[in-house]
Write a structure and sequence with these properties.
The complex is a heterodimer. Chain A is about 25% helix and about 35% strand. Chain A is an alpha/beta fold. Chain B has a single domain, classed as 3-Layer(aba) Sandwich (Rossmann fold), CATH 3.40.50. Classes of the chains: A alpha/beta, B alpha/beta. Bound molecules: adenosine-5'-triphosphate and magnesium ion (MG). Adenosine-5'-triphosphate binds next to strand 2 and helix 1 of chain B.
Chain lengths: ~425, ~250
């Protein structure tokens, strides 16, 4: 099956080189070779044990269609997360559409543009950071993305700049996406003393379309930065989504991620945060809401490479129907990473007898002076709380809905930017109403 | 208003209430006392419709309708309110949201329109005075992280907002300092009304100095073993439950 991609790659390489800088070509080729050698992970691969990839592997996927249809902003608006005045880059079936994008009022020097644009016009920012963090050796999907990506978002926040409104990267699919694979590639660079908020959304206009999104996002932060990275996955429920996010967190920097997953038939998100210097901090929050036959898999890795690092992770899930969730939270503490403080929690609310959760913490600690804790729960709504709410006049269904909402809202509360929080709350309520 | 006839209830295989009869008329205040584990909370929870308890015999009429046929929320909408002995924490739900949702359910049940958040705030301002609280409390999650006394106070705030016909207070005085006790008691007294009734479960005469009951009942091992006027509480305080047990035994013979 990797043969199909090889052919794609050769076709692509012969047509796309005009747009591609010289330095990129060998990187792409190495990545393709790598993927050709490894192929897709199999069920024997421990990292993929609970996540059957057959539906992806067995199909042959055409290259993404790009934005052939003319969409109006009004068509896109309901699926775009956030306020109209936020800077947004809209990609339709993998291709940047300037007509649907909106620059907003970004502070001086801030760049929010598409990779295709950067590849055409040059500049060394991309070269300096591209493929340095999300490594092709770690994951065949990353290799494939690196070989075949065409477009995506590039955000650059220069030193000292405070980005007060979020930048929105919107990846939208239409019916034309059916049968295709899209490899979005994003790079977020936040220089020292800067603050930024970036939102990455994967949404669809075609709820029944079967396509595959394979995004890779790299985040690099300079010293003393503050970054909020929000991710919303609301793909078609017949689609597949396998993503990797790699964040490099520098000295005295604060990286917080919120990852919400509600869509796709199968969704896997690898979120790796490396505390790449002392006094770095990573906060990883997650919320997944599944029903029907959906499977959502979150694999996170926290690399505590240096002393005095702090990480805090809370993932919550709400499962209904016959859906499944996988959570694997790895914390790797290097011998020199003394005074590491890491806490991890995964809590699951199971609303149906047929839903299933596989949750596993994985602590690998090689330093002795550290504080690392983890905990996981899988349970139902609290009967006592339900009775309490009903005794105040709330109907059983309403009480259930309210408590379910509250369970999820607790983690949304952790999103720092108020307008983002409000929007996430709205999405949550919308989804809970649908499920009901 | 409320008529309990020969009520038996159990939790699992354990029989807890063993033939309780009690009649409460509008405007009355009934106090229920009795040793730990005698079934006071169980009685209160059965009246509120807690699913853990099964009624095996007897009947409860509330304003002529069969209470035991109603779901917990229908009982609340009919005008029954239970202030829990152990109020439940609802993390993630603000007091403001919860109270307004509950209040609107009551209004809907009465065929009234729902109120929007702004109008509700006006109403709240008035009700917060009952418990001597500022508005900050409304943005905190329901009971989560509240001190024991704050939780009890919050129950009284809910009571004040929901304006039930029959309020059952399960040890609302336990864990309150003397000032909070007075606030709570004054709150209840303000809510007294010829159409409304209270059942007050307590271990202490102290509360009954502030809220003077018309009747006092003593529960022991799931039965009402003694009933009387407000002086019974004083007598009980002086003589203790051994005296009650002796009386109950005499009665049984
Ligand atoms: N869900 C339950 N399952 C089993 N036993 C129960 C349950 N609830 C209450 N009981 C038992 O029933 C008896 C009566 O309990 P209840 O809480 O009604 O007592 P109480 O009079 O309110 O006591 P206290 O003064 O300590 O509050 C106790 O022995 C208690 O252990
Ligand atoms: Mg009790």
């Amino acid at each position: 099956m990797s043969g199909v991609f090889l052919k794609d790659f050769e076709n692509f390489a012969s047509t796309a080189t005009a747009d591609s800088p010289d330095w990129l070509e060998p990187i792409r080729r190495t990545a393709m070779d790598r993927f050709a050698r490894t192929g897709f992970p199999t069920a024997r691969d421990e990292e993929w044990r609970f996540t059957p990839l057959a539906p992806i592997v067995r199909r042959s996927w055409r290259a993404a269609a790009g934005a052939n249809e003319d969409l109006t902003p009004a068509q896109v608006d309901p699926f775009v997360f956030g306020h109209p005045e936020w800077c947004r880059l809209v990609f339709v079936n993998g291709e940047h559409v300037p007509g649907l994008s909106f620059a907003g009022s970004l502070p001086d020097g801030v760049i929010a543009t598409s990779l295709s644009e950067v590849l055409r016009n040059g500049g060394d920012l991309l070269q300096r950071h591209f493929a340095r963090y999300a490594r092709i050796e770690e994951n065949p999907f990353t290799a494939l993305n690196t070989a075949l990506f065409r477009d995506g978002g590039l955000v650059h926040v220069p030193a000292g700049v405070d980005l007060s409104l979020p930048i929105n990267l919107v990846f939208l699919t239409t019916r034309e996406a059916d049968g295709t694979v899209i490899h979005p590639r994003n790079l977020i660079v936040v220089e020292r003393n800067a603050r930024a908020s970036v939102i990455e959304s994967y949404v669809t206009l075609a709820p029944g379309a079967r396509y595959w999104t394979n995004p890779v996002t790299e985040v690099w932060t300079g010293a003393n930065t503050w970054v909020e990275h929000t991710r919303i996955q609301r793909e078609s429920e017949a689609a597949y989504h396998v993503a990797t996010t790699q964040a490099e967190v520098s000295r005295d920097s604060h990286y917080r991620s919120f990852s919400m997953a509600m869509g796709a038939a199968l969704a896997r998100h690898n979120l790796n945060a490396r505390l790449a210097d002392q006094y770095a901090e990573a906060l990883l929050y997650g919320l997944y809401i599944t029903h029907g036959e959906q499977l959502v898999d979150n694999h996170t890795v926290l690399y505590h490479d240096h002393p005095n690092g702090h990480s805090w992770e809370v993932y919550k899930g709400i499962l209904d129907g016959r859906s499944r969730a996988v959570f694997n939270g790895k914390v790797l503490v290097k011998p020199e990473a003394q005074k590491t403080d890491a806490k991890q929690t995964n809590r699951n609310l199971v609303l149906s007898d047929f839903a299933k959760v596989d949750t596993k913490p994985q602590l690998e600690i090689f330093a002795d002076d550290v504080k690392c804790t983890h905990g996981a729960t899988v349970g139902q709504l609290d009967e006592v709380a339900l009775f309490y709410a009903r005794s105040r006049g709330l109907a059983a269904e309403e009480a259930r809905r309210l408590l379910t909402y509250a369970f999820a809202a607790e983690v949304i509360e952790e999103v720092a930017l108020a307008p983002v929080r409000t929007e996430l709350n709205r999405l949550l309520l919308e989804r809970l109403d649908e499920v009901k | 208003m409320l008529e309990i006839k020969d009520l038996y209830a159990s939790a699992g295989t354990k029989e807890i209430l063993k033939g309780i009869s009690l009649k409460v008329n509008p405007g009355e205040i009934h106090a229920i006392m009795g040793p730990n584990g005698s079934g006071k909370s169980t009685l209160a929870q059965v009246l509120a419709g807690h699913p853990a308890f099964e009624v095996t015999r007897g009947q409860v009429l509330f304003e002529g309708q069969n209470l035991l046929d109603l779901q917990p929320e229908e009982r609340a909408q009919a005008g029954i309110f239970l202030a829990f002995q152990y109020p439940v924490e609802l993390p993630g739900i603000t007091n403001a949201y919860f109270l307004r949702a509950a209040y609107n359910e009551m209004r809907k049940a009465r065929g009234q329109e729902e109120v929007d958040p702004m109008d509700f705030l006006d109403l709240l301002e008035e009700k917060l005075k009952v418990v001597d609280w500022g508005p900050e409390i409304m943005q905190r999650p329901v009971n989560a992280g509240f001190s024991g006394g704050e939780k009890k106070r919050n129950e009284i705030l809910q009571l004040a907002v929901l304006e039930p016909k029959l309020a059952i207070l399960d040890e609302t005085d336990s864990g309150l300092d003397i000032d909070a006790l007075r606030t709570v008691a004054e709150g209840v007294n303000r809510l007294r009304h010829p159409d409304k009734a209270f059942i007050i479960i307590t271990h202490y005469q102290r509360l009954l100095n502030y809220i003077v009951p018309d009747y006092v009942h003593v529960l022991s091992s799931g039965r009402v073993v003694m009933s009387g006027g407000k002086d019974l509480a004083l007598e009980l305080e002086a003589k203790g439950y051994e005296w009650v047990d002796a009386q109950a035994e005499a009665l049984a013979r």
